[in-house]
Amino acid sequence: QVHLVESGGDSVQPGGSLVLSCAYSGITYRHVCMAWFRRSPGNERETVATIESDGTVNYRRSVRDRFTISKDDDIQHLHLHMANLKPEDTGMYYCAAAFGYCLGLPMESRFDSWGQGTQVIVSS
């Protein structure tokens, strides 16, 4: 059974940086799509970034050039480095995993394994 646990959420000022981490276990399949999602107040959960097993990454346009997704299979951690944070980045951030390929920015219905989330607040 896949187990995902996020950490690193915090309250920061606009322009600040954060690194989110997701410790994962139980992933035994060769091809896995891993992703970061977020749910902002009043909005649906949206895909922020994805990473394939071969390292291919994709980002939603609003975070491109500010966020970096990475994965270390040796220590089984997924990361999201966030820089130049904006108030609109506020939300609950979730780590997710799915068997197979991401092929871009799939919607949440594609994923069957989720963490509990970690809160990010960007405010002055």
What does this structure look like?
The chain is an all-beta fold and 124 residues long. Helix content is 0%, strand content 48%. Strands 2, 4, 5, 6, 9, 10 and 11 form a 7-stranded mixed beta sheet that branches. It is globular.
Into which percentage range does the β-strand content fall? over 45%
Task: Outline the biggest β-sheet.
Answer: 7 strands, mixed
What's the end-to-end separation, in Å?
40 Å
Helix content bin: under 10%
| Rg, nearest Å | 13 Å
Q: Number of DSSP helices? A: 0
What is the number of strand segments?
Answer: 11
Shape field: globular
- The run of helices and strands is EEEEEEEEEEE
Low-confidence stretches: none
Q: How does the helix and strand content classify structurally?
A: mainly beta
Mean pLDDT: 95
Draw up the topology in text.
Blueprint: E1 3-7, E2 11-12, E3 18-25, E4 32-39, E5 46-51, E6 57-59, E7 67-72, E8 77-82, E9 91-99, E10 113-114, E11 118-122
Parallel strand pairs: 2-11
Antiparallel strand pairs: 1-3, 3-8, 4-5, 4-9, 5-6, 7-8, 9-10, 9-11
